[in-house]
Amino acid sequence: MENLTALSYDLRKDVIEIICAGKAGHIGGDMSVIDTLITLYFKQMNISPENMDDPNRDRFVMSKGHSVEALYAVLAKKGFFTLEEVLENFSKFGSKFIGHPNNKLPGIEMNSGSLGHGLPVCVGMALAGKMNHQDYRVYTVMGDGELAEGSVWEGAMAASHYKLDNLCAVVDRNRLQISGNTEDVMHHDDLHERFRSFGWNVIDVKDGNSIDELNAAFDEAKTVKGKPTVLIANTVKGCGSPVMENKAAWHHHVPSEEEYTQIMKDLEARKEAALHE
User: Fold this and answer.
1) CA 241 → CA 32, 39, 104, 182, 200, distances in Å?
2) What is the pTM of this model?
3) Among 223, 234, 235, 252, fewest CB within 10 Å belongs to which?
4) What is the topology classification, in CATH, of domain 2-275?
């Protein structure tokens, strides 16, 4: 686990390089969600470049598709393509490495980014698995701002109705969206009770940037029968450097040269601390 924590800071550096190379990117959400992606791809999911066409592979959909740079960094590390390919092509005209997930790339199940679509599609994937008597699991990550979309709750109702215990959703609860604090834009009240009222098992991940806590929560979700599970992952937008953390302005931002230098210094310091804990 310590190695994965150190890896999280290396991959955050890769995200910074991708965004600077493409001169675009949703950096704040990348930094809050990358620990979830690392936990899924390196500890939890049965998915790799070798089995990505296997009908019984696990499925993942990045519903908050604007945080694609984090997904590209993780998929590159996993071997679906190379980081060099991403750096050379991200956000370039005619490139497959666009600013939202693109299923023309290996390892990406569906195009996403139009918010509210990921969970309903994953309900269909999970239901298909049940109907075909397959044992794969389906995962999706949503932003907390995304929960204002009505289709999320239609999907939540269907998932409960069909008792989709092979479905696990994650809410990246960083409390910031493009237009400010989520509680000012569209407040969530008690998000845990809301999901429970829709028939879901709810796991609170107090530190959603802790790979230890995330891994334990995903393990617990696998034991739940008869209902889907949602992880409320309490994360920090821009996690990794005080330059970015908890600042709505970093929802979409390309670091200046000075910001780049300080962020990389902060990420390296946190990596070293993780290695020596």
Assistant:
1) 11, 21, 33, 21, 34
2) 0.95
3) 223
4) Rossmann fold (3.40.50)
